[in-house]
Every structure is written in C-alpha cells, then in structure tokens.
Amino acid sequence: MLAFNSQVFNQKYGNFFIATHPNYKLEVISLKDFLSPDQNYYQSLENAIALEQPDVLSISMEHYAIFRERSKLRPLNHWMKRDGFDIEGITPAIIDSLQNEAGDLNGLSPVFTGSALYINKKMLAESGIPVPTDSLTWDQVFQLAQQVKPDNKQVRQYGLYTKYAANPYMMALYVGEGSGLHFFNHGNEHFTFDAPGWENVFQNIVDCFQAQVCYDNHSKASKRSMTREESEVRSYPFLAGNIALAVDDSALYRILTASKDRYNDLEWTVVPSPTSSQYPTTGNGIRMEEIFAIPAGAKHADDAWELVKYICGDDYGKLLPHINPDDLPAREATDEEGLAEVFYKLDHVNNNRINGLRRLPDPVLKKMEEVSASYIAHMLEQNMPVRDALHQMQHALQTAWDNSTNPG
Questions:
Q1: pLDDT tens digits for range 317-372
Q2: 286, 97 in Cβ contact below 8 A?
Q3: Which residues form a coiled coil (predicted)?
Q4: Closest CA relative to residue 202, chosen from 173, 245, 163
C-alpha cells in the first residue's frame, strides 16, 4: 500500500482493516520518503511505484486522471459486480468524476472536500437583501455581492470572497470552470477565451474588484505568531464577520459547527456551491485527495480489492464521521446541523481547469503566466475593455501553442 504518510494512513484506515481482517498482512509505504527537491511530485510518485510495486495507491484527483489516461490502473467493475459492492449510496458527483465514458471505475474514495456558498445573514439583512435558501448561479452571486452596502463601518466590508481572490485570473478560471466553461478545446487545439461566456466571467470579476466588493487578500497583514482563532480567520476570512458571501470549502463548515462558542456572533447559513443556469447540477465543488486505486501491475490484485472495498464500503463509512470528522464522507451521513446536505447536491464534476493546465507545454504555461498578469492589469486599470483584452490574450496564447506544438 502506497500512501503519503503511513502513520496517518494506519490511524485512519489500516488499523481498522487489520482488526476486521486478521488474516491479512498490510505493509504501508510512505510516499513522503520518496519526495526530492530535484523532481516534481508526479515523478516521485512514479519512482515510488516502480521501486516498491505497491498493490494499492492512495492518490489525488489530478494523479488519478493521469494514471487513468495512461492505462496504469485496473478497472474495479468486475470485483464490484462479483461482490455486489454498493455504489448507490455514494454521492453521484464522486462516481461521475471517477468513471470514464465507458463506465469503468478505476478508483474509489471514502471522503471528499466539498465547496459551498457561505452567507453572512446579518450583513445581507443590513443591506435589505433577502437571504438565499437555495443554490445560486455565479452571475447571481456577483449581482448579490454588488448590492452589499459598506455603511461606512470602521472594519472594511466585502461582498464576496473566494480562495482565488489573490489572483483574479485564477479566480476567473475557477468561476468559468464552475460555470461549465473550458478555456482550451483539445479537439481543435484552440483557446476559447474569446467566447462570450468568458467575457461575462472576466467582466463580473473586473467589476467586483473595481468596486472593491471582492475581498482582496493583499489587505491581510501578516503576523509571526497567531492564536488559533487568528490562524483560522486568516485561512477562512469569512469568520471575521465582514464578508457577506464566501465560496469556500467544507473545512470552514466543520469549524463553524464545531466552534460555536468562538464564532457565536456570526449569523450564517450555507447553500450549494454556485453553478450556471445552463448546467445547474454540474460544478467544481468537489475535491478528492485520497482516491484508492489498484495499479495495472499489482501482484496481489484480489487482496488489494479487499482493502479498497473495506475502506470505501458502507461498514467503514459508518465509522468515518468519528474517525475523520474533518472530511466529508462519500456516503452521506446524518448531520446534526442539517446543513451538510448542500455539499452533496452536484451530479457532475467539471475538472477541466487543472486537467487543462497540466496538458499545456511549459512554454505555453510560461506565456499564460506572463500575458494573464499583463491583461488582467489592463482590465482592472480600465486601460482596455475586457473584450479587447481577452481577444489579445487569446491571440498570444494561441500563437504560443502553435509555436510550441509546430516548431519551425
């Protein structure tokens, strides 16, 4: 078994597996021991697999996608069918993300990190805005954020926060992905930033920052030592109470529900992560860092399946909230607050942003970093209309792609 940290893996999974499967021997290898400054994470992962030849892998969504594309993982379908393994209880978006077009599942995950829209009810009430009770589109989120009135308070107030607020370009890619957009068409090998959908996304973000409605990460002062609460607020600015809307992950939900005494002045609620009106059940509000898969060359594949089946099965799933309360169980559990269901609303996951970026050649990524910073600055400083800036950025990136893939 190859996991990032053997000790953590055994605490969460391994010890429970051995206790219920006494006839099995489980050896866990730590990937962190193979990490090296002279190679990237994926190269370290490949080296560890080649040297140790594990029967089971614990990998992230990105590495799962790479291994699946390169046919390095075994499909689990025949084992699932043979053993009557229940996937009906697993949230549909997870199955959709892990399944290929042929219906093959090459991995399973017992947990995930969700995303949602957190709402400061007091701030909306002060601005005379009704509190949303269901999912919103990204357009509606930006419109709502613009309606929040600062009221000249001593503490600067913001309408909207996202975790990509420090980089408006990456924020645009994130919002676009959540709206069902693709920035690159791998079929015809063309960038698509000049499409109307992207103009709308970038215009919303430019308007948000120009009006100082979007939270600016650069406004945070750094401190060498912080209390636990200060550290939490730095990681999750919504906790400070001066942000009306925040698109953030499920770890914030865990903090809010587990630390009521520390944040009892914060009147909040949560609704599903924003999507688009065209694809209301498709979004990018799910991440998985622990996908369990069986390598194509596994020597003990049947035994490996027993481990995967246990970790991702219903019996262990009932223990998960007690063993690992920080992550969300793939099989929806009972929630005392009654709000965690918002993380289970998606049916389909759009992961084209990370998968699209990793497929670009290094010269194109370098050009993207250069031109995105330049043209975002032009947009924010109103030196160039959004449409013109996107058109020029599109041309620069397409030229870089053509030169990289067809040199000479």
A1: 888 888 888 899 999 876 666 788 999 999 998 888 888 888 899 999 999 999 99
A2: yes
A3: none
A4: 173
Question: Could you tell me if 41 and 289 are in contact, meaning their C-beta atoms sit under 8 angstroms apart?
Answer: no
Alpha-carbon distance of 170 to 49, in angstroms, equals 32
The label of the residue with tokens 């017992």 reads 110
Q: Which two tokens stand for residue 54?
A: 């594990």
Residue 206: other Cβ atoms inside 10 A: 22
Q: Please tell me what DSSP assigns to residue 349.
A: E
Beta bridge partners of 291: 59
Total count of residues recorded for the chain: 408
Tokens of 132: 């949303």
Cα R_g (the chain), whole angstroms: 23
Helix 386-405 × helix 362-380 angle, to 10°: 170
Tokens read off for 327: 């992550």
pLDDT digits (tens, 9 = 90+) for 211-244: 999 998 765 655 666 787 888 899 999 999 999 9
**Residues 6+ away with beta carbon under 8 Å from 379:** 202, 206, 386, 389
Give the DSSP letter string of 259-317. Answer: -TTTSTT--EEEEEPPB-SSSTTEES-EE-S-EEE-BTT-TTHHHHHHHHHHHTSHHHH
The total of other beta-carbon atoms located within 10 Å of residue 315's CB is 10
- Rounded Cα distance between 366 and 59, Å, is 27
- Indicate the SS3 state at residue 3: strand
For residue 374, give the nearest of 389, 386, 364 by alpha carbon. 389
Q: Which of 100, 256, 245 is nearest to 162 (CA)?
A: 245
- Residue 384 CB: number of other CB atoms within 10 A? 15
Question: How many C-beta atoms lie closer than 10 Å to residue 173's C-beta?
Answer: 24
Q: DSSP secondary structure string, 133-202?
A: -S--BHHHHHHHHHT---TT-SS--EEEEETTTT-HHHHHHHHHHHTT--SEETTTTEE-TTSHHHHHHH
Residue 45 has pLDDT above 80, yes or no: yes
Q: 97, 65 in Cβ contact below 8 A?
A: no
Identify the residue whose tokens are 């992950």.
Answer: 249
Q: Which of 333, 307, 308 is nearest to 320 (CA)?
A: 333
